[in-house]
UniProtKB/TrEMBL annotation:
Entry keyword Nucleotide-binding: no
Keywords: Membrane, Transmembrane, Transmembrane helix
Identification of the protein by name: FAR-17a/AIG1-like protein
Record carries keyword Chaperone: no
Superkingdom of this protein's organism: Eukaryota
Gene Ontology terms: cellular component: membrane
Listed transmembrane segments: 31-55, 87-112, 132-152, 164-185, 191-211, 232-254
Length: 306
């Protein structure tokens, strides 16, 4: 197989997503799927707007640590709004919001017109981009959640805002990804999409160090060489391994979902067939109990019935 063809990346030459799996579901109607995606889109952008509004007028206190770094506290004010575009957490949350925006538009259009821009209008490069987009938003959020709660969280914050924002961007992000894994009828991500996922993660590493050069701070403290170059290498290797595992688990979860949906459909068909068989058997039983009664022999001519 040629690795540099659209077919090898999940965009068939006979037509992109001919079964419309990106805008349909095994379990709910396209309209319900579109509505759920819209709800998640609205929550994502509402969270970001609320966060930035709060930081523009108040200060948030964030306590962090790492596996080899003790607890430290950061005060975040209005400057954190611009700095958030250097944090993998917020970039991932922005991506979730825009994905659900695009996906809801395509799904609503399919629900009402049985066609969509994604399938009927977009050129193949954009169709490929959407497919890759799906592969990233069903992978990145899990890395964010596991890393934050597993290695970086330094205790439950005291402030209500800090509590809510932590739950939203470090917890609900993975819930949103799980919803997008379970509900749509999408096919498993092509294995070569993993290379793009890792490439994006590598590009982010460059962005983080560019931030250090241009704004003078390390996005994450483990990137500071003061803690040792070995620590940086081990963090990068660990995050790359976690990303590979996240992609594999996401992919096999989609395989499992499709298998469950297939068995569910078969069981419904078998149940329907069984009811039809029972109905036929009942009809035959009823027919076998029917007795045909012939009328009495007619009287001979000349006889009158009184």
């Amino acid at each position: 197989m040629n690795l540099f063809t659209y077919d090898s990346w999940g965009v068939s030459s006979t037509g992109f997503d001919s079964s419309h799996t990106f805008v349909s579901s095994h379990f709910v109607s396209p309209l319900v799927l579109a509505s759920i995606r819209t709800l998640l889109c609205v929550y994502s952008f509402t969270t970001i707007i609320t966060c930035y509004t709060y930081l523009a007028h108040k200060t948030a206190t964030v306590s962090l640590k790492d596996v080899n770094i003790g607890s430290y506290t950061i005060q975040q004010g209005s400057a954190a709004i611009g700095q958030s575009f250097s944090f993998f957490t917020y970039l991932t949350f922005w991506c979730l919001g825009f994905y659900f925006l695009f996906a809801s538009v395509h799904t609503f259009m399919y629900a009402f017109k049985t066609r969509s821009y994604l399938h009927n209008t977009f050129p193949r490069p954009l169709q490929l981009a959407h497919s890759l987009y799906y592969s990233t938003i069903t992978t990145f959020p899990f890395l964010v959640t596991v890393v934050f709660w597993g290695t970086m969280n330094s205790g439950w914050p005291a402030g209500r805002f800090e509590q809510w924002i932590n739950i939203s961007v470090h917890g609900l992000n993975s819930v949103f990804a799980i919803v997008e894994i379970i509900l749509p009828a999408t096919q498993p991500q092509p294995w070569n999409h993993l290379s793009i996922v890792l490439a994006v993660l590598s590009a982010y590493l460059g962005l983080a160090y560019l931030t250090r050069e241009t704004q003078g701070f390390y996005v994450y403290e483990w990137m500071n060489p003061a803690h040792g170059n070995a620590s940086i290498v081990l963090h990068i290797a660990g995050y790359a391994g976690a990303m590979v595992l996240s992609f594999i688990l996401s992919r096999f979860a989609i395989v499992a979902r499709n298998n469950v949906a297939k068995k569910f459909d078969l069981s419904k068909e078998n149940g329907k067939f069984g009811k039809e068989m029972d109905s036929d058997n009942a009809s035959e039983a009823w027919a076998s109990e029917v007795t045909i009664v012939t009328p009495p022999r007619a009287k001979s001519e000349g006889e009158h019935v009184v």
